[in-house]
Amino acid sequence: MTSFVRTAHRLVIKIGSSLLTNEGRGLDHEAMQGWAEQIQFLRKTGKSVVLVSSGAVAEGMRRLGLNDRPKALHELQAAAAVGQMGLIQGWETCFRSYDVGTAQILLTRADLASRERYLNARSTLSTLLGWGVVPIINENDTVATDEIKVGDNDTLGSLVTQLIEADGLVILTDQAGLFTADPRKNPNATLIGEAKAGDPNLETMAGGAGSILGRGGMLTKVLAAKRAARSGAHTAIVWGREPNVLNRLASGESIGTQLLASLPALTARKQWLGDALPVRGSLMLDEGAVTALCQEQKSLLPVGVTGLQGAFERGELVSCLDKEGKEVARGLVNYSARETTKILGQPTESIENVLGYVDEPELIHRDNLVLLQG
Ligand SMILES: Nc1ncnc2c1ncn2[C@@H]1O[C@H](COP(=O)(O)OP(=O)(O)O)[C@@H](O)[C@H]1O
Ligand SMILES: N[C@@H](CCC(=O)OP(=O)(O)O)C(=O)O
């Protein structure tokens, strides 16, 4: 088993809060220096690296002397603002010692959901990489509210992987990798060396965060791998304190867990459509519609829809669910929820009779549809 990192050209490396802040005791400058040195080594071997760094809230809590994560949103946002200063200062100092420039990029889901801002972020990141600068990304926690936030940096890391079309995502965390169960709770859990990204069994093994510092736990990492795989990228989940972890991965040593992409990459627009936009509702599909979408590469017609949920508008993203409620696809819907309620189950020829007009013959056109296999 060889690590995919060896042949990757463009990598996103994500480092979690508890690793960075020494389990909340304060930024671990020595460890940061070690990762910066290894990233510099990777860059010297011709790889481009984008860093996704957590730790703003954890470091803010330490600087403010808070023992518990603030519950009030304004306090959480303020703590993140305090901690982000230390975080970026720390990274700047580490990379500066190797004469490498850094850039701070703070994003929210709203930035990624707007096609224009998404493309802007992409060209800024490409420009920085072209200049040999290491972009350091975090969520813009100081302005992020529930409606516009990504919520955890594993997800953000996978969105950035898609954004820059990286071929690998490396998640450094506080466990050796993905285990068959949370090793903090189950001492008999064993490490998974390699699996297929998107394998639904992985989601049942992965639990929540291990400490008050972490956000998503293993589940968000497994889901991040699934998303990254949609753009053809592989994911490694590894213990960040493993000596020389990044250099060893780059030399091909397989450490931790590798979740490998097995499907052809979606086009950049379809990745954006399926992952960056918020889902506004869902459509329940009959078996014929699921077959038409998943096996026959067809558009979704109203006749194959048996029900819906949500108050979506025309042009918004909706989930397509099979009879068991499993999401099989996502797409931009041509009719609002109000209109869809009236035409569901109807043949396309009846749309005009029922609504008095026809916007499009399909409920979701194939070009605006993303299949979610795996
Ligand atoms: N199946 C699993 N394998 C490994 N760790 C797991 C698993 N399920 C849950 N976890 C927990 O996930 C934690 C890592 O996630 P998290 O706390 O969010 O860290 P990070 O800050 O690195 O994102 C581990 O400390 C562990 O307790
Ligand atoms: N944006 C937040 C990090 C959120 C997060 O996902 O944390 P983690 O699970 O430790 O990667 C912060 O900087 O505190």
TrEMBL record:
| Predominant place of localization | cytoplasm
Pfam entry (one): AA_kinase
Keywords of the record: Amino-acid biosynthesis, ATP-binding, Cytoplasm, Kinase, Nucleotide-binding, Proline biosynthesis, Transferase
Q: Where does ATP bind?
A: K14, T173, D174
Q: Where is the PUA domain?
A: 281-364
Pathway per its UniProt entry is: Amino-acid biosynthesis; L-proline biosynthesis; L-glutamate 5-semialdehyde from L-glutamate: step 1/2
Q: Which GO terms describe its molecular function?
A: ATP binding; glutamate 5-kinase activity; RNA binding
Instruction: State the name under which the record lists this protein.
Output: Glutamate 5-kinase
Species name: Ferrovum myxofaciens
Its gene is: proB
